[in-house]
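Deliverable D2.4 — example input (C-alpha cells):
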C-alpha cells in the first residue's frame, strides 16, 4: 500500500478525452468520469494510503450502488484492500498499463502497402489517424495533446488484416505528429496479460510505467 497521497497525473485527463469520457468531479487526487461508453460512473484515483482507506470508502458510498459502476486504481495493487473490495462486490474487469516513451526514441516512419492510404483528421478533443486499404478502413488511432505530453490510443485494427504493419504505421504517424507539435513525452494505455502483468502491446522504445486495475460493481 502506498504511504503518501498522490495527485492525479495530467495524462489521466487526456485518457478521459481519448475515451470520449467527461470529468464531472475532480479534486486533484481523484476524478469521476461519465460518458456514453460507460454503464455507470467511473472513479479514477491512485490506490489509497493507509490513511486514505476511509476516504475511498466515502467516495465509493457516494457512487451509485448499481451494477456497472467502475473503480480504476493506479499503481501497484494492494492485495489486502483488493480482497476487501471483492467482499463488497467489486470484481476486477480490466487490467491495463501506462506505457511511456521519449518521442525521439520511437519510430516516426513506417512503410505501408502500396494499396493503403493514411488520413489525418483533427477533432475537438483529439486528432484521429485512419488507414484504409482498397478503400476499406483497416486501422484507427487517436492522439491527445496534453499538458507536457501526448497520449496515444492503442490502434484498433480490422481482423481482416495482419495487424503489425498497420499498428506500426498508425503509431509512427502519431509519434511524428507529436514531434511536429513539440511534444517530447509520449504515453499510451494498453491492456495487460492478467497472469504476468505485461503489456500486450509494447513497441520498441516504450517502457511500462504505471499499472491500472479497473473493478466493476457486480462484475459487469
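Example output (designed residues):
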Amino acid at each position: 500500500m502506498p504511504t503518501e497521497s498522490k495527485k492525479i497525473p495530467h495524462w489521466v485527463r487526456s485518457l478521459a478525452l481519448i475515451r470520449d469520457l467527461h470529468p464531472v468531479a475532480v479534486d486533484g487526487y481523484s476524478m469521476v468520469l461519465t460518458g456514453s461508453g460507460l454503464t455507470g460512473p467511473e472513479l479514477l484515483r491512485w490506490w489509497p494510503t493507509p490513511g486514505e482507506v476511509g476516504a475511498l470508502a466515502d467516495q465509493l458510498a457516494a457512487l451509485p450502488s448499481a451494477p456497472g459502476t467502475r473503480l480504476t486504481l493506479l499503481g501497484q495493487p494492494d492485495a489486502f484492500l483488493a480482497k476487501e473490495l471483492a467482499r463488497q462486490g467489486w470484481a476486477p474487469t480490466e487490467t491495463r498499463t501506462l506505457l511511456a516513451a521519449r518521442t525521439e526514441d520511437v519510430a516516426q516512419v513506417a512503410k505501408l502497402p502500396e494499396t493503403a492510404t493514411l488520413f489525418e483528421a483533427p477533432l475537438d478533443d483529439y486528432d484521429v489517424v485512419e488507414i484504409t486499404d482498397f478503400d476499406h478502413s483497416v486501422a484507427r488511432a487517436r492522439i491527445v495533446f496534453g499538458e507536457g505530453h501526448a497520449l496515444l490510443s492503442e490502434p484498433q485494427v480490422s481482423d481482416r488484416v495482419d495487424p503489425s504493419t498497420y499498428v506500426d504505421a498508425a503509431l509512427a504517424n502519431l509519434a511524428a505528429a507529436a514531434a511536429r507539435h513539440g511534444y517530447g513525452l509520449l504515453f499510451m494505455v494498453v491492456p495487460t496479460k492478467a497472469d504476468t502483468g505485461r503489456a500486450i502491446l509494447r513497441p520498441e522504445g516504450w517502457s511500462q510505467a504505471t499499472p491500472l486495475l479497473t473493478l466493476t460493481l457486480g462484475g459487469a
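Residues 31 and 48 are 14 Å apart (CA to CA).
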